[in-house]
Amino acid sequence: MAMPAHKLEPEEPPMEGRIATLEADVKHIMTDTSELKTDVRRLDAKIDALGTKLTDKIDGVNQALIGKIDDLNKTLTGKVDDLNKTLTGKVDDLNKTLTGKVDGVKDSVTSLAMTMEKALHRLTMWVITLFISLGVSLLTVIARSFHWI
Asked: How far apart are CA 105 and CA 28, in angstroms?
């Protein structure tokens, strides 16, 4: 049986060379990291300035809107108060007019009721008189038919 042939592989680079390469890469990474830190600090200052500027603008807009809302509130309150006075006056006038008309109708109905009561009283007296007359007439007819009269 034959033995396989061994390949000749190049030897690995020495450990010191690899460490030197790693140290160079670490220095490069550290340089990049310090550049990133510098950029972050610069951006942090810009963001803080922008935040302050936006806060000031928002406060200014807030104050302007509060002023406009207050002015609108005063204007609308005045208009509503004027409208309330006008409508209250009209309602009071309508109340007086309707009260007068209702009182007039009430007086007319009362007068009509009194007239109807008097007419009914007269009619009742006439009916009673008629019944008495009919009774007397009937008794007279009966008395004549029996020759009592």
From this structure: 109
Please state, in angstroms and rounded to a whole number, the distance separating the CA atoms of residues 110 and 128: 27
User: Can you tell me whether residue 4 is helix, strand or coil?
Assistant: coil
Q: How many helices (H) and strands (E) does the chain have?
A: 1, 0
**Rg of the chain's alpha carbons, rounded to an integer?**
60
Task: Give every CB contact of residue 58 below 8 A, 6+ residues apart in sequence.
Answer: none
The residue behind tokens 């009194």 is 114
Quote the CA–CA distance of 35 and 45 in Å, as a whole number.
Answer: 16
Average pLDDT in the 47-51 region? 92
Rounded CA separation 85/92 (Å): 10
Reported pTM:
0.44
Q: What is the DSSP letter of 146?
A: T
15-24 per-position pLDDT tens digit: 888 888 888 8
Which 8-state DSSP code applies to residue 8? Answer: -
CB 143 within 8 A of CB 149: yes
